[in-house]
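Incident log entry.

Two folding requests arrived from the same account within the same minute. Monitoring flagged them as a possible duplicate submission, but the sequences differ. Recording both here for audit purposes.

Request one:
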Amino acid sequence: MYIEFLPGEKHLVKNVVISRALDIFQDAGYLFTYNDLIIDIDNTIQEKAKRLLDRFRIKTQIVNDNNSLEQEI
């Protein structure tokens, strides 16, 4: 599920819309569920992060932002 943000911001719009489809929004964020686990690894080398994911058999979606390396694990 996705939730609508103000364009270019990480703030909700008034009368927020929640949708299963990301393509209906100009800007949006993923709406976390009870089972989601978020790990911020900004200062970790990506190869080290990949080994961590592999070791614990974590299946995940990798998201990079403008402050992160551009390449996905």
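Request two (distinct sequence, not a duplicate):
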Amino acid sequence: MNSAGADGFFATPMSLGSLLYPMLTRPLRFGAEIGPIALNAIRPMLDLIAQGTLKTDGSEQHVGFTNDPTTGQLVAHPRTLVESRDYIHDDFASFQDGKPASKLTEEYYVFRKTAPDQNTP
């Protein structure tokens, strides 16, 4: 999965914001039929990425996650350098009005891939 690679337009590796980032915390329903057996599952996209089941271009590492205070659910937000925030918008209406993205003021989390620990089974 390549959510919005922009490497072809810039001198350094980077990704553009994508419509896929809100889906990272949403459950995906999928399945397979193997002969007479049907297998079905529901898993969050982020879990599939973390397990390596769903291959990506790494742009999920450019997303910040907060907890929704009402529901307790994880919410995905675009994340960028402060000096680039004029080019990131909260929604389409903000884009049309030229309003930059809101700064995350509460604690947020980021997804970071690490090499597997060789001592862990």
